[in-house]
Design a protein that fits this description.
The complex is a heterodimer of chains A (223) and B (438). Chain A contains 8 helices and 13 strands. Chain A has 223 residues and is of the alpha/beta class. Chain A has 2 domains: 118 residues, Rossmann fold (3-Layer(aba) Sandwich), CATH 3.40.50.2300; 91 residues, Arc Repressor Mutant, subunit A (Orthogonal Bundle). The two termini of chain A are 31 Å apart. Chain B has 3 domains: 152 residues, Beta-Lactamase (2-Layer Sandwich); 89 residues; 143 residues, Heat Shock Protein 90 (2-Layer Sandwich). Helix content of chain B is 50%, strand content 16%. Chain B is built from 7 helices and 14 strands. Chain B has a 5-stranded antiparallel beta sheet. The radius of gyration of chain B is 51 Å and the shape is rod-shaped. Classes of the chains: A alpha/beta (223), B alpha+beta (438). Chains A and B meet through helix 1, helix 4 and helix 5 of A and helix 3, helix 4, helix 5 and helix 6 of B. Chain A: It holds the Pfam family Trans_reg_C. Chain A: InterPro entries: CheY-like_superfamily, OmpR/PhoB-type_DNA-bd, Sig_transdc_resp-reg_receiver, WalR-like, WH-like_DNA-bd_sf. Chain A: One of its GO terms (cellular component) is cytosol.
């Protein structure tokens, strides 16, 4: 999952970046609204963490612009303002959830994951396909009720596929959402990592749709 | 002392003291004028008497007796003339009969003396007297003409009979004018009072209307003070908000370290951060609540809450909660920001704890009722959640300050808060405002 953090305070931005990365997110940081605008126009993100007080204008105004431009990115706003009219004005510009500074890091992760999950059509924090379970809060994968050991990169891949299921995910999409911006892999690397993941999952959980990409499905019981 | 009383006292003095004094002076002047004109007549008669006086060749005096006025011939008529030497009377008008007037012994020859005198039957007279020397007559002759002052008195009486009712009428008229003047000149003050009362009830933020010059200055000054008050309050709020704003981001940074420290240190840091956070939010809330006593216009609660309700219906939808609002249009005498703050904090609290649904009800009768289907609280401990920083639930993130802010605000409007068990299963917070607000 790839998240854009827009926060003008560099220390906080850095800390949020570390925090999200530690939880398996791919993170880009923008310190100004203009930077954020550029990144949003050029990159693909799964979620946006937006501070309302930016040096070059209100975050709410940028959000409004993006919404008007038809960019449907799930957005969590951070606000230091405590007046509800300000908070509501910022939120009503098109946010999906909000947090008031200073927030608990755990709550940020919780809200962000819940938002992404819902945006992809999952109501429950536990995603399940066949005997495969992903607990989004604990980043824990269970297969047949047993914990499955995955590397961080494998977990990111699987998590993205599970969130997207049953839709097909192209290699480009995977490259954009699962890998760092400056380290986007060629399709070979993705194929290799998918291969490893397939081996660990066993069965036919990951289906290759020729020319289109990958899809996560529940294997037929007969297999 | 009221302006009314002052005006009544000064005008009362004018009516009861100055006006009679004026009348008295008028009376005095009139009496004097009448007496002088009476004296002039006497003097003219005296001159006639003296002109008619001749020494006869025998050494006696001749005198035309009648002076053309019959009253000198009617006995004790009040009109007399008399000629006398120092020792004995020489002649007198018929009206004196056997009585004689007393001459003034101090007269100098040729001088006219006008004085009061006594006539027959104790009549009060005005007397004109001149001592003359006639060639051929050895003694100084006291020539006197007297007239009864009843004529003067009668004229003065007649004047007074007009004067006194006139004065009374003028006094009464002044009294009526006084009442009208009080009404009219105090009317702007009453308007100002009315305007102030409207201001106090929060129906206006300034004193409105045009006032006379003397009051307009005061009204303008008052409005200036109110405007300055507003500016100061706004600036204070802004300062508090800026301070809070600038501290919240570093606190958020610090919080990200809490989880990475050794549990013991992390807990310590966490507690300290929470403390700072509470102080900031509490002081900020206080700075904002300072406006609660500032009088404001009655607002439509539903309209004021629209942004917050829109926000929460979206938040709840995104968090998978059902959010039901039932609110009548009600006009409340409360600052919109304060109402938003109260409802916002209550809804935030409810949305944090609810499992699947939140309800908000508000109307004039009910006040505000927020309920959720969360775990609820132990009602025995209920009061504590309104204290600053007390959280009954250490699991849910938050500073535990939101409800303290609500309590502070509701208190500022003299409202009441009751906690109860919601029919939904969780906590129910019921806020009621006094009738002055709702």
């Amino acid at each position: 999952m790839k998240v854009l953090v827009v926060e003008d305070d560099r220390t906080l931005a850095e800390r949020l970046c570390e925090l999200l990365q530690a939880d398996g997110f791919r993170v880009d940081v923008a310190n100004t609204g203009a930077d954020a605008d550029f990144l949003i126009q050029t990159e693909r993100y799964d979620a946006l963490v937006l501070d309302l007080g930016l040096p070059d204008g209100s975050g709410a105004n940028y959000l409004q612009q993006w919404r008007d431009a038809g960019i449907e990115l799930v957005t969590l706003i951070l606000t230091a303002r405590s007046s509800w009219s300000d908070k509501a004005a910022g939120f009503n510009a098109g946010a999906d959830d909000y947090l008031t500074k200073p927030f608990e890091p755990a709550e940020l992760l919780f809200r962000l994951k819940a938002m992404i999950r819902r945006a992809k059509g999952h109501a429950h924090p536990q995603l399940q396909i066949g005997e495969l379970q992903l607990n989004t809060h604990l980043n824990q994968v269970l297969l047949h009720g047993l914990a499955l050991k995955l590397t961080a990169q494998e977990l990111r891949l699987l998590s993205y596929l599970m969130h997207a299921a049953p839709a097909i995910v192209s290699r480009t999409e995977l490259a954009e959402h699962v890998y760092e911006r400056d380290k986007e892999p060629d399709s070979n690397v993705i194929d290799v990592q998918i291969g490893r993941l397939r081996k660990k999952l066993g069965g036919d959980y990951i289906v290759t749709e020729r020319g289109q990409g990958y899809r996560l499905v529940a294997p037929r019981p007969s297999d | 002392m009221s302006i009314k009383r002052r005006t009544v006292i000064t005008s009362g003095f004018l009516i009861l003291f100055v006006l009679p004094s004026f009348a008295w002076l008028l009376n005095l002047a009139f009496t004097k004028a009448v007496t002088e004109s009476f004296d002039a007549r006497l003097q003219a008669l005296l001159n006639v008497v003296i002109a008619e006086l001749h020494v006869t060749p025998e050494g006696g005096l001749s005198m035309v007796e009648s002076l053309g006025d019959r009253r000198f011939n009617e006995v004790y008529s009040g009109w007399y003339w008399q000629l006398a030497t120092d020792n004995e009377p020489i002649a007198a008008s018929r009206s004196l009969w056997d009585q004689r007037l007393t001459p003034n012994p101090d007269g100098t020859v040729g001088n006219l003396i006008l004085r009061d005198g006594i006539g027959p039957q104790d009549q009060r007279l005005r007397v004109a007297e001149r001592d003359v020397l006639l060639t051929g007559y050895p003694d100084v002759i006291h020539v006197m003409v007297g007239g009864d002052t009843r004529e003067i008195v009668a004229e003065v009486r007649a004047f007074q009979s007009v004067l006194w009712p006139g004065i009374v009428a003028i006094g009464a008229l002044l009294g009526v004018f006084l009442v009208l003047q009080l009404r009219w000149s105090l009317a702007p003050l009453r308007r100002m009072q009315f305007s102030l009362a409207r201001f106090r009830r929060g129906q206006q933020t300034r004193l409105q209307g045009r006032f006379p010059v003397e009051l307009q200055g005061v009204v303008d000054a008052l409005n200036d003070v109110l405007a300055r008050d507003e500016r100061l309050l706004a600036r204070g709020r802004e300062t508090a908000a800026n301070l809070a704003h600038s501290l919240k981001t570093p606190l958020a940074v610090l919080k990200t370290y809490v989880g990475q420290l050794q549990p013991e240190h992390g807990r310590m840091l966490g507690q300290e951060i929470t403390r700072m956070e509470q102080v900031i939010q509490y002081q900020l809330a206080r700075a904002n609540a300072a406006g609660a006593h500032q009088l404001t216009q009655a607002i439509d609660a539903r309209q004021a809450l629209t942004p917050v309700l829109t926000m929460f219906s979206r938040v709840c939808q995104n968090r998978g909660l059902a959010f039901n609002v039932r609110g009548d249009t009600c006009m409340w005498l409360i600052a919109a920001e304060d109402l938003q703050e109260i409802i916002g904090n209550l809804l935030e609290n409810a949305s944090k704890h609810a499992h699947s649904q939140i309800e908000l009800n508000f109307d004039t009768q009910l006040g505000i009722l927020v309920s959720d289907d969360g775990p609820g609280i132990d009602l025995a401990e209920g009061e504590n959640i309104f204290q600053r920083g007390v959280r009954l639930d250490e699991q849910t993130p938050g500073s535990g300050i939101g409800l303290a802010i609500v309590a502070e605000l509701v208190d500022a409007y003299a409202g009441s808060i009751q906690l109860g068990l919601s029919p939904l299963g969780g906590l129910e917070v019921h806020i009621q405002f006094p009738t002055a607000i709702a």
